[in-house]
Design a protein that fits this description.
The complex is a heterodimer. By secondary structure, chain A is α/β, with parallel strands linked by helices. Chain A has helices at about 5-15, 35-45, 105-115, 145-155, 175-180, and strands at about 15-25, 25-30, 55-60, 65-75, 80-90, 95, 120. Chain B has helices spanning about 40-45, 95-100, 100-110, 115-130, 140-165, 170-190, 210-235, 240-245, 255-260, 265, 275-280, 300-325, 375-385, 390-400, 405-410, and strands at about 50-55, 70-75, 80-85, 200, 205, 340-350, 355-360, 365-375. In chain B, the strands form three sheets. Chain B has a three-stranded antiparallel beta sheet with strand order 1-2-3, with no helix packed on it. In chain B, a hairpin with a 5-residue loop joins strand 7 and strand 8. The chains are: A alpha/beta, B alpha+beta. At the A-B interface, strand 3, strand 4 and helix 3 of A face helix 1, helix 2, strand 6, strand 7 and strand 8 of B.
Chain lengths: ~180, ~400
Amino acid sequence: MDAALKRRLAARFGERLTSPIHQRHDETEIRIGPGDVPDVVRAVHDEPEFRFILLADLAGVDTGTSMQVVYHLWSETSADWLRVVADGLSREDPRVPSVTFLWQGAEWMEREAYDMFGITFEGNRDLRRIYMPPDYQSFPLRKDFYLADDAARSPGAGVRHMEQSHTPRSGRTETLVRKTRA
Amino acid sequence: MTATPHVHPPQEVPSDDPRVELDAATGAFEPIPPYPPRTERESEFYTLGDGEMFINMGPQHPSTHGVLRIVLKLDGENVVDLDPVLGYLHRGVEKLCENADYHHSIAYLDPLEYISSLFCEWPGVLAFEKLLDVEVPRRAEYIRVLATELNRILSHSMFIGWMALDLGGLTPILYSLIERDEIAEMLAALTGQRLLFNYLRIGGVNGDLNHEFLSRLGDWMSRATTQIESNLTLLNENEIFVRRMRGLGTLDKETAFRMAVTGPNLRASGVPLDFRRAHPYSVFPELEFDIPTRDEGDCLARYLVRIDEIKQSLRIIDQCLENMPDGPIMAKLPRLLRPRPGRAYAAVEGPRGQYSAYVISDGTDQPFRMRIHDPSFVHLQSVGVLMPGHLIADAMAVMASLDPIMGGVDK
């Protein structure tokens, strides 16, 4: 645990953190609102006291009540991984600013999070499905995804050719399974 | 009395399904998708400029290292832009892990990559151990390092063969396969499997070192250095190979960090970043090895960095065998694991870059969320930055030099 990093983070982002800084093993975790992502990420990337230059991972998380986007960053100024959690995205319409302005390599990771969770990254210029076929209807890693029903509803699952045209449904929220099952 | 032969009625393919229409030639891929562009980038890519054309490459192209489809936008023989289409190997490993218990999900991590399986297991196992606060016995840590470094050599020697194969040299892959086969047999003696080892366990490893493994390893180690060196003379002294690779697909430091590239591809751009040193795990702080780097950042540099890494891996294996402590190979753990609610992240340095796993536990015996990060995915993305401006044939060389494995890309 890097106590110095915790102090620096608390001093720099004090009022923006939505919960206390959490440290365990070799990880330091800060939680911020989705709107603060570009500022915070740019600050920890650019400022000489942080210099978290490597984006190690970008993950979407569905907690069951809200959505999160989790960034893991590496720096040579600290022995810890820095975990930035953009917390409290709504499950109906999860939105978070993209970090592709800083790491172009985040583009596909964000596409993956969009594909699996339906999280919209504002500013990502190529936000389309990456693994699932283009006419796939639902978001597989969400906690309300019911495997048998939901996979069978999607026309791309083996019956039609993947690249065949389709008429897209109107709203994204229709794809939530619980609503249709209830 | 003669038996009357039973005649089967002629079978007909049921054609009442309106979705199955075989008018158009099936299996032929139209490069342009039949639906309207979904994003700004897609519409930009699928708009042809003057004298440009689309070529569809894949998904069954031999030099794409798996089932990858790339739509190339060409001007004559030059690649203007490209759009990789993924998902042909997508198995939903993350979802599978969330529906399996902690021990079980290690087996799902294995087939992510069929060349360096041990490196896919390791971050997952490390993250589980962090969640459970398990102390791994030192002998188990040494065995892990020994096995994974062998796997690294296996992976790099296959890379060398593939690299040459993509440039049109058919011979080196045969020598690579000899090397790979010897190591695979060795690891099979240790783990029981040739390809998907499923060897690491939470708190240790699956089996202790045995006689067959050690005798095969000792036999191989005595001639490994000379054998690898002599294999490499085929390429290293090949004027065509070296001149073709030099200056091709140059990746500079800033672009590498911007594209989140790690591993040998980053070190070939002059950044000595190796997580075995930069963020130490296991027993790597006790072992001596160098981090080979190159400054050029081209295909040749990426090739040479990997060769130097093979030599460093041999050094590490030597030290492991010398310092191997006695003791147990498994920590004492209950059969059913229920970590306290929490989060853990672990990363290891694999032959392609940083493999990592992020696990969230909610107190049950299954991971609540299991995120797997694979370097091949990130490196394949940087192909889009490196390829434009090259000839098609060179573009394949650029892709081969980044060494993506589609199993890892598609998860």
